[in-house]
Design goal:
The chain has two helices and 22 strands. The chain is 5% helix and 41% strand.
Length: 382
C-alpha cells in the first residue's frame, strides 16, 4: 500500500569525491570487414516496360535505356555496428562508351519492397534525388572484365541508417552516357557477383536494469529495527529515523569481458520534505550482495564502504509536496565499481542511498508502473 509520501524533477550532480584511483577501461576498437552479395537484383528497361529480368545472369546499365537495382540484407551485422567504410562493386564484362558523362552513378532507393522477379520499368521504385557516389569504366568494342567500385563516404550514413531500420538497403545504378553489362547475383561464378563491402566497429551498447532486490530499513521507535520492508511499493530515506534504501542489480545480461563506459542510477520520488541542511541523497557501494530483499532489516543491514559514488538533490515545498521528481546520478565514480562487479563471479552490485537531512520517498521495484521503478543504465563496449 502506498504511503502518504509523494517526488521532484531530474537533478544530476557531479561528485567531488573519488572512489578509487581507477579509470574506465579503454579499448582499441577492432574493425571487422564483411562482404555481402545482393539478396535481389535486376535491371529494367523502358523499351519493354512490363518485362522483368530478375532471373538473368546480367545487369544492364545503358543511358536512358536500362538501369539496374540491387538490394542487400544487413541483418548479419551486429545491431551496434558502427559503419566506418562502405564500398559497392560490380563486375562488368562488356560495354560501350557512347560519349558524354560515362559515370555509373549509385542512388539510394528507400523503398525495399520491390521484388526481384516482379520489378519492371513501370513499377520500379523511385531513387533519391541525389547520388551517393559513382564509378567510371570505359569500353570500346572489346569485351573485358572490369570491376566498378564506389567507395564514396556518402554510402556510410545510408547503410548505417538502414541498419538501424529494416536492415535492408537498395540501390539503383544508372549512367547518362555509357553502356555497361555486369554479372548479376545469378551468375555461376560467385566471385564475380555484385558486392557491398562494409567495415565496422562495435559501438557502445546501453542496457537499462531494474533492481533484482530493493528495500529500506528503519531505526527502531516501536521495534522497527527488526522489521522488513522488502515487499513495499515505496522506498524511504529519512535522517531522523535513519531510514536508508538498499538496491541490488544483477549484471548477468552484460556480456562477460565488456568494458563499462558510463553508468546512471535513477529513482523516482513522489513525496518529500526539505527541512534544511544537506539534502543530498548519497549513493554508497555495499560490497556484500548476500542481503535478502525480504529479510534485510535495520539490525542486519550490510555495511556501506568508502566515499559516496555520487548524489542527487531533490527539493519539496512544505505545501503540496506530492509530485514526481527523478533523482539521477551518473558520476564517473560508478564506472570502476560496475567494472569490478561485472568482472566478479556473482556479477551483482549493491548500493545504499541515504541523506543527512531531507526526507524523500521513492517508488520501489514492486510498483505497478514500471517506468517509475529505480533503474541502473549501463553503457558498455562488448
Amino acid at each position: 500500500m502506498m504511503s502518504r509520501f509523494r517526488l521532484p524533477s531530474s537533478s544530476s550532480v557531479t561528485t567531488l569525491l573519488a572512489v578509487a584511483a581507477l579509470s574506465a577501461p579503454s579499448l582499441a576498437l577492432a574493425s571487422t570487414t564483411v562482404t555481402l552479395t545482393p539478396v535481389a537484383d535486376s535491371y529494367v528497361s523502358p523499351g519493354v516496360p512490363d518485362s522483368n529480368f530478375g532471373n538473368h545472369g546480367t545487369l544492364v546499365v545503358n543511358r536512358e535505356f536500362a538501369e539496374a537495382y540491387l538490394r542487400f540484407d544487413l541483418s548479419s551485422l551486429p545491431a551496434n555496428a558502427v559503419i566506418t567504410a562502405a564500398s559497392l562493386s560490380a563486375l562488368a564484362y562488356d560495354g560501350y562508351a557512347y560519349g558524354g558523362d560515362g559515370n555509373v552513378y549509385t542512388s539510394f532507393v528507400a523503398d525495399d519492397s520491390w521484388q526481384e522477379m516482379g520489378i519492371t520499368w513501370n513499377n520500379r521504385p523511385a531513387p533519391a534525388s541525389s547520388t551517393v557516389g559513382e564509378w567510371f569504366l570505359w569500353y570500346d568494342f572489346t569485351p573485358e572484365d572490369k570491376r566498378g567500385v564506389n567507395s564514396n563516404a556518402a554510402l556510410i550514413p545510408v547503410v548505417q541508417g538502414e541498419l538501424a531500420g529494416d536492415k535492408l538497403v537498395s540501390f539503383r545504378l544508372h549512367s547518362p552516357g555509357y553502356k555497361t553489362r555486369y554479372r548479376s547475383r545469378e551468375y555461376s561464378n560467385a566471385a564475380q557477383r555484385p558486392a557491398l563491402t562494409l567495415t565496422y566497429e562495435l559501438g557502445p551498447v546501453t542496457t537499462v536494469l531494474e533492481p533484482e532486490a530493493d528495500a529500506y530499513v528503519h531505526r527502531s521507535y516501536w521495534g522497527e529495527s527488526d522489521w522488513n520492508y522488502g515487499s513495499e511499493q515505496e522506498l524511504v530515506i529519512y535522517d531522523s529515523a535513519d531510514q536508508k534504501i538498499f538496491l541490488r542489480f544483477n549484471l548477468a545480461s552484460i556480456p562477460a569481458g565488456s568494458a563499462i563506459q558510463s553508468v546512471k542510477l535513477s529513482a523516482t520520488s513522489f513525496w518529500g520534505r526539505s527541512p534544511g541542511g544537506d539534502g543530498n541523497v548519497y549513493t554508497y557501494l555495499v560490497p556484500d550482495n548476500s542481503w535478502g530483499e525480504y529479510s534485510i532489516t535495520y539490525n542486519n543491514q550490510p555495511a556501506a564502504t568508502g566515499s559516496p559514488l555520487g548524489w542527487w538533490w531533490l527539493w519539496y515545498p512544505t505545501i503540496n509536496p506530492n509530485f514526481d521528481q527523478m533523482g539521477v546520478t551518473e558520476d564517473t565514480n560508478f564506472i570502476p565499481v560496475l567494472q569490478a562487479a561485472s568482472d566478479a563471479s556473482d556479477r551483482r552490485v549493491s548500493f545504499r542511498l541515504s541523506s543527512p537531512h531531507y526526507l524523500t520517498s521513492y517508488y520501489s521495484r514492486e510498483y505497478s508502473d514500471a517506468s517509475k521503478r529505480p533503474t541502473l543504465e549501463v553503457t558498455y563496449l562488448p
